[in-house]
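Design request, C-alpha cells follow.
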C-alpha cells in the first residue's frame, strides 16, 4: 500500500522532507538454560525531526518482553 505525504513549509506544503532521526535503548535478558533466555524487558526511544507545523519533533517509545531461543 502506498501513501503520499505533505510537509508544511513556509507559505506552502512539500511532498519531500529531510530530517534527523536517532534511537537509544536497552534491556535485560536473563539466561534460563544454554539455549533459552527470558527477555525481562526492552525499551527503545526513537526521536525524529520532520516538519509537522508545530515543534517538528516526534518521539516514539517501544517496549517489549519475550522469550529468546538460540540454536
Amino acid at each position: 500500500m502506498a501513501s503520499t505525504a505533505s510537509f508544511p513549509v513556509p507559505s506552502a506544503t512539500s511532498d519531500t522532507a529531510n530530517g534527523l532521526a536517532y534511537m537509544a535503548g536497552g534491556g535485560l535478558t536473563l539466561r534460563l538454560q544454554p539455549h533459552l533466555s527470558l527477555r525481562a524487558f526492552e525499551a527503545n526511544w526513537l526521536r525524529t525531526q520532520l516538519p509537522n507545523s508545530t515543534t517538528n519533533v516526534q518521539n516514539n517509545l517501544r517496549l517489549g518482553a519475550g522469550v529468546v531461543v538460540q540454536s
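Comment from the thread starter after seeing the answer: thanks! Residues 17-69 form one domain.
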